[in-house]
Amino acid sequence: MKLHGYFRSSAAWRVRIALALKGLDYDQVFVHLRHGDQRAPTYLKVNPQGLVPALEVEDGAVLTQSLAICEYLDEVYPQSPLLPGTALARARIRAFAYAIACEIHPLQNLRVLNRLKALGQDEAGVRAWAQETIATGFDACEALLDGQAGPFCFGTEVTLADIFLVPQMANARRFGVELRWPRLTEIEAACLRHPAFEATRPERQPDAE
Amino acid sequence: MKLHGYFRSSAAWRVRIALALKGLDYDQVFVHLRHGDQRAPTYLKVNPQGLVPALEVEDGAVLTQSLAICEYLDEVYPQSPLLPGTALARARIRAFAYAIACEIHPLQNLRVLNRLKALGQDEAGVRAWAQETIATGFDACEALLDGQAGPFCFGTEVTLADIFLVPQMANARRFGVELRWPRLTEIEAACLRHPAFEATRPERQPDAE
Questions:
Q1: I need a labelling partner for B28 at 20 to 30 A (CA). Which of A59, A72, A79, B103 fits?
Q2: Out of 3.40.30.10, 1.20.1560.10, 3.30.420.10, 3.30.1540.10, which CATH number does the structure's domain A2-80 have?
């Protein structure tokens, strides 16, 4: 398999964690988002959306969207299930992941922040937008975990929820968000002691700057 | 089952379509988003995120996030599968749905448009933001369907992709987007002839204004 990604993309980090959890080997292709590699014709042939990550699988097919890639990996490689339990348990795990993937991440990615700058927002305004987005979203995430046991989001095993939480926590730190969510912070610490998270951290990647 | 929704919420419409496709009965509870019902303490007990839809299932459990609800319904009620085919086929269907759920919808919902107004954007500026978001996203969606046969997104049966496309097309019309995507427009027309889409249209709901 071949993963097209960028060390600092939180969506690419999600896929690196899923691949590591399942013990899968893959090659990496580095798409430098700040240099605009994602808009190069060669990359648009891989993913017409111009987004990372994209995963080339055995037969040359290209998968896009980190959520779809994680679901695919979970169906094809059932070891270390990302969505364990009953349909209801799986729905709760997915809802948590989507609360990040659909409510937080799209509103604080580079593309949107650049659009806000084009509308006349200065650095402080853009930063405040990202901080407010993340804080509101994490309030909801903390509430979604009410009554759930640790050390991970949903019990004693890593799930899709943790895979989405940890890269978003890294973004929160990068934007200087005050981390006022004790449960989320504990989960992040537990995850970062796990080798699948540790080894895939952005700063450990070959393209890290 | 009890669906908490709002006639004009495209996320609630997705769930209405999924329930209709599977032939499931449910009661509706109307949460008036423009009156702020979603921030009322009674609703926040149902969904702490303050978003619609939320689905109460048989044992009183509450499911949130339209994507998680659709996946749950597909697992528990396998008739009229929303994700037919191989793992690769399912990944393509999911990637299309996520291209709408993660890349378009979050950037043009009421909450975000209100934030843009608070930053000083006038009506025209907010409308232009929504239009640009939808147009860029639909360019990618049309490309993702390259090589796929109709009349629906992925062949002769309705899938999760169609459930996400049609409500987003309605939003596009509402924002006055020029619909320059022939394939998406044809799929929308085919879907709106299907009873699961027809009967669940926003204007057919009891809370429509």
A1: B103
A2: 3.40.30.10
